[in-house]
Amino acid sequence: MILSEPQHRKLVKQRQTQSVFWQWVHRLGSLKSAVILILSIALACGVATIYESKFNTAVAQYYIYNNPLFALWLFFLCLNLICSAMTRWPWQRKHLGFVVTHGGIIILLIGAVLGRSLGWDASVTLKKGEEPTGLLVRKDTILYLQGAVSGEAYTTPLNVAVRVPSQDKPRFFKMPESELTLKVDGFSEKLVVVNRLVEDQQMGTQAGLALNLQSNMMGQTLTVSLLAAPKELSTYDLFGLARIELVDKLPEAAKSETNQAKTYRETHMVFERHPESPVTHNTGDKLSGYRFFLEKKMPEEAKSQGEPTWQIRARSPRNQEKVFALPDVVGKPFPGEEEGTQIQVVQVWRDLKMQGGKPTEASENWNNPAALVTLSGFLEAESKPPVLYLKRLEGGRVAFRVLRGDVLAKEGVLTKDTAVPLGWADWSAKLEASHDKARIVGQTEEQLGPPGPNQQAVSGLSVQLLDAQQQAGPKVWLASGTSRLLQIGEQTARVGFGLKTERLPFLISLENFQVPRDPGTETPANFISSVRFHDPDTGEKIPGHIEMNHPASYPGDWWRAWTGLTYKFSQAGWDPKNMDQTTLQVLHDPGWLAKWVGSLLICVGITLMFYWKEPKRIRDNPAT
Amino acid sequence: MIPTKPFPKFISCLKNLSTTARLCLLIPTLLCAVQSAGAETSPFSLSALEDVAVQENGRNKPLLVLAMENLRTIYGADVWKDPETKQKVPALQVMMEMLLEPDPWLSRKIIRVDHLKLKKELGLEPSEKYFTYRELSQSDRLQTLFSEVLALREKDSRVKLEPMLEAARGVGAKMEVFERMATGKVWMVVPHPSDPVHGAWVTLPEGNKYYQPEQLSAAVAAFREMAKSYINRDQSGFDRAVATLDESLRGLSPQGYPSASILQLEHVYTVMHPFRLAWWAYGLAVVVLALTSLRGREWGYRVGWGLALLGFALQLSGFVARTVISGRAPVTNMYETVIWLGFGVMLFGLIFEAIYRCRYFLLGSAPVAVASLILADSLPSVLNSAIHPLVPVLRHNFWLTTHVLTITSSYAAMALALGVAHIILGKLLLKKEVTAALYQYLYRAIQIGVLLLGVGTILGGVWANYSWGRFWDWDPKETWALIAFLCYVAILHGRLAGWWGGFGLAVGAILAFQAVVMAWYGVNFVLGQGLHSYGFGAGGLEYVLGFTVLELIFVGAALLSRFRGGAVLSKA
Questions:
Q1: What's the pLDDT tens digit per position in A490-531?
Q2: Subunit contact B188:A520, Cβ cutoff 8 A
Q3: Does the global pTM surpass 0.80?
Q4: Any residues with CB less than 8 A from the CB of B203 and at least 6 apart, and which?
Q5: Which of B392, B466, B518 sits opposite A525 (nearest CB)?
Q6: Which CATH class is domain A120-135+502-590?
Q7: ipTM above 0.90, yes or no
Q8: Which of B459, B471, B485 is the best substitution to test chain A (most A C-beta atoms within 10 A)?
Q9: How close is the nearest chain A Cα to the Cα of B456, in Å?
Q10: Fewest Cβ atoms closer than 10 Å to its Cβ: which of A260, A434, B98, B452?
């Protein structure tokens, strides 16, 4: 039905006065509510981006984008779009662009709802040579709580990125099918498994001891637990810097003089005029790292008068500087920072000139001053990593002996009272425990310093059980990706923590991963993963190829690709240190078709609205 | 006392830098004769050397361009000015002298440090702009800052650094370029033997990685000869040596070696500054059009048109050259989008002007184009004009052209609307009459912008669905594009409802453009969050804030004057 403009207006006006339904349609579809909705959504989004910049993405997503209020707002927008389209009913040709655009937005939003409720995006890290997997992880973290009766796993969201549980702000979860409550009152990203020595008269078979190693320089405190046997448990490798061994008998050091650590000699020819380019030579393979600077120092007062004095500035490999007046040190050796390092200024030339390949003095004026400095010390390459041998003594004490090669570096007795320096870097040791019958158990603990050898820091929660009387059980750390049995009195409950998972209806494995680089640089030019999809029904193995901007879809039928009823794999991440591994983003989005169609309609609709004019013929002669 | 080993020759003052790539080793005996820069002012021309091909950051280019880009990076200009002798040393000469005798350059003020707090932190003179490599390299505090940056980056390569660390990182990058120049590592002139386009090039001393010594001997000899004649100021000998060098390098791997014409094109593009010439032309057009608006309309209009077209042709040729050189659409970083904005605004302005013939479109678009091009021309530290390879996700010409071009063109249309809105409000402030047609022009410009912004944002979603595996995830860049779109949509709806007319549209066009600025600049330079991290940068905030404040004052003044006049918003 094509109406003339006045007819249409009259009809609209008429139904508005006659019907409550139409009144509401017009109210909800009014321009006023549209502008309010549009501006408030824009404002909320603006606030969200600032939130995101200030805190993190998870916070912005949780408080705004994924907030039910925001969804409600979008719902109102949808309602407004529908109603405003209805207010123009019966649609005339001139409404074409308007209707198409508004319809497009509605379809797009429907697509978003479909994608949200039925779809997901997750990621998977594939390693070359590993078994095919169908297990994906999502971004959000959840708690797994095991039902006390059925033993079924219940899950509940716990997004630590949004709100970090802490002592002051603990979170409580009711354990399913029981009276117990789970209290979560801490989150840490520095959890490690520490081997602890436990005295055990029944099960323990070996004698053992535990040491506390400390280094202020490295900001590290480590617990080392050793048993008398087997070998793996009686030795401990400290980052390859040193070894610790529990033995029955301390080994003897060699006595002969020839076994002393070897030394190096180093010469530095330093120039006042070219401080950055000394000529250096070392008898070993590499330089000690010491630097020397020959400098002029003007007297404090009366800068124009007075003779300048000359000084040598020595900078150690650790960037410690010392200044010496030249006359004080020429020909007189002085010690360096490291043990056994000797430094000497051998000779000074006031006006250096090379003559026949030999340095000579051209004049007595300080025109081109230079100095020759020699340095000697223990050669690092020659010094073997130290070994700390420990032997349990009567009365809970422990004798120790540190050997480098077979040269004795240090020996003594360790007690629980004082920390004894061990002579390598600034490590010191203190006895923690010594038992005749002991076991070693791995415990998840928070480590404030950097992780020790063979430890990898993971994140996790501090958890404990509360019973109906609010009695608290022991507090333990629950590492991410693990579950453990918690206890309170006689009651137990199993809880787990980790990323939410998703399962593919098929399996995927990595065949190859390549990162081509820009010529002459390390800059990646692309990321290429060759994968294989394993169909569980047919047993087929279908190859897939994923690179930047070229995702792979499986199952790959065209209609699935268009409707989003497929799984799409895009390149998402990589580890420069491990080139056999790739991280893929997996998208399952049944709302894709609606998003696609809606988007297209919006574009077409806006174009029609702005640039499509009703043919003149119709505008002038509307049929009645 | 004589050391056990004989002294090496006194050639290197940069021992602390790596010596592996030092080309100076080729010419040890000549160095004593090198004149320090600026000591002598003989008119020696390095032009023969300008078009020799070299590789940097994975891209092949002429030496001149490399020298200019490097000097722009570390010094911020194409010519180094000696603060003592006031002499100007062109980029290529700087590069040449740094190769032959790096020592004096260590103590020349050539590294630009702008960040005031950083300068204070390092104990540098805050009023100074340029510093020597030596004083920077000796600053222990700077080294500590570097290690902090490294530690942060190791944890998360996309981490947003706090301003001080970001500034330190910038200084570190400049020092690195300086080191590459001083050690001769930038002279990667030896082509990859089988694939000069994609393979890695090396320096002459490293040439044995690819070639037998006898294959390289001609090039090495020519290089020595070149250096010798440069030192002796032997112009003809220099030109001959460079010709031999060029020929012998090209002869090493002729298949795929950059052609003389493409090198020439990049040379001309870099030297000619087509974008600078363009804004001169646009600027003149504005002056002529504005001055002749009142009297002598017709000839002034024609001259204005001519100048605008000339500027447009220059800018277009610049774009074509840049596209040919880089092999991609020129909209991949802040510099390119700022230039593109100037281009787009003129394109729309010219089209509308051709249709409506009202001179308002030219008057509205040309000043915006001039402003954007001046901006791109004068802030090399924020807007880097060098052509660099792209991050992998951008290496897709279809999406790059469709999504990014559409979005940036929408910004351009909005900028045109901004220009026209300024004319309207300016006229009102001056109590001049504004015709209904002028309001209509503003509406037309906003229409284009809304359409392109909508389409561009949706295209972004489709691309994101391909490369990142989701259509829409409230990434800040996406979100701000949406916010800008919603702002303009709200303005159009308000007009439809009759709440405001042309005046409101003009005010809205200026206010909503601030959302475009946020989406365009703010997300990358202020928020610094999200997946569009390849475009992130730092600096320029004071200019942008200044712009926004000025705009707000302008709008405020217009509103005040209008409501004093007793008018209401809804009347156009």
A1: 888 899 998 888 899 999 999 999 998 887 777 888 899 999
A2: yes
A3: no
A4: B21, B23, B184, B185, B187, B188, B189, B190
A5: B392
A6: mainly beta
A7: no
A8: B471
A9: 9
A10: A260
